[in-house]
Design goal:
By secondary structure, the protein is mainly beta. The chain is built from two helices and nine strands, in the order βββαββββββα. The strands form two sheets. Strands 1, 2, 3, 4 and 9 form a five-stranded antiparallel β-sheet that branches. Strands 5-8-7-6 form a four-stranded antiparallel β-sheet, with no helix packed on it. A hairpin with a 3-residue loop joins β7 and β8. The protein is elongated.
């Protein structure tokens, strides 16, 4: 039986992401597995395109920044003192922090984008913020979700803090 992608199914996708010019952004080396049906496990536009699809079917979804990782926000750039960071600091390293005036529930992951003599430039934007993206997804498996997965709103792959 070839199940359809419907609410409360666990869907496995092979995927890749390109920019609108076809330049590869994410090769999707690992399959993407998510709980279908509005659980915010995947972008809503992709979930909508996959509704009713079966194993072997492919969808191509073109997304503007607002539909994907958001517009680039220059306010999420912070310049900090070099002395506040570990000695072994490299561009690309990530740190959790709060935006200016933010509280604990607004923590962001900041990437080190530049290291100058006594300053470090941090960027709290997602690396793909501000980019239009093209997601190409092929359904490789569909199974019914367990009652526990539905109750928790995500798939279970052996680890769950709510167990």
């Amino acid at each position: 039986m070839n199940m359809q992608v419907i609410k409360n199914t666990v869907v496995t996708l092979d995927y890749n992401v390109t920019d609108p010019d076809g330049e590869l952004v994410d090769a999707g080396k690992e399959p993407l597995v998510y709980l279908h049906g509005g659980y915010d496990d995947i972008f809503p536009m992709i979930e909508e395109a996959l509704q009713g699809k079966k194993v072997g079917e492919t969808v191509v979804v073109k997304m503007q920044p607002d539909d994907a990782f958001g517009e680039y926000d220059a306010d999420l750039i912070q310049i900090e003192s070099r002395k506040d960071f570990p000695k072994e600091l490299q561009v690309g390293m990530q740190f959790e922090g709060l935006p200016e005036g933010g509280d604990d529930d607004e923590a962001l992951i900041y990437r080190v984008t530049e290291i100058a003599d006594d300053r470090v430039v941090l960027d709290g934007n997602h690396p793909l913020a501000g980019m239009a993206l093209v997601f190409t997804c092929t359904v490789t498996a569909v199974r019914p979700a367990s009652a526990e997965e539905i109750a928790h709103g995500h798939i279970h792959d052996g680890e769950c803090e709510e167990d």
